[in-house]
Design brief:
The chain has strands spanning 10-15, 21-26, 30-35, 41-46, 52-57, 63-68, 73-77, 83-87. It is mainly β. Strands 1-2-3-4 form a four-stranded antiparallel beta sheet, with no helix packed on it. The termini are far apart.
């Protein structure tokens, strides 16, 4: 099936550890969460001001990270879609994000 909702290129996708949710990051500056079983959009996470290059779930599936051309990494509550924090300090694009296996970093 095809998941439709982004208005520009999709740069990254990641499944939650339980396989029930799919996250996608796009050049439309959003991260979208999808129900993997039905393909329906669950939420649209807005806060980046440039293209989203990478998304990753924490090992427990509760937190989602996104990295963007706006030079930030944002952490989101995967259940509610609320932004938890914005990590700043990079001087150029953030191309990739990942969590350590223990989920602490």
């Amino acid at each position: 099936s095809s998941l439709e909702g982004h208005t520009d290129y999709v740069r990254s996708v990641a499944f939650a550890p339980d396989g029930k949710t799919l996250a996608s990051g796009s050049d439309d500056k959003t991260v979208k969460l999808w129900d993997a079983a039905t393909g329906s959009q669950m939420s649209s996470l807005e806060g980046h001001t440039r293209e989203v290059n990478s998304v990753a779930f924490a090992p427990d599936g509760k937190t989602l990270a996104s990295g963007s051309d706006d030079t930030t990494v944002k952490l989101w509550d995967a259940a509610s879609g609320s932004q938890m924090s914005s990590l700043e300090g990079h001087t150029d694009y953030v191309r990739s994000v990942a969590f350590a296996p223990d989920g602490k970093t």
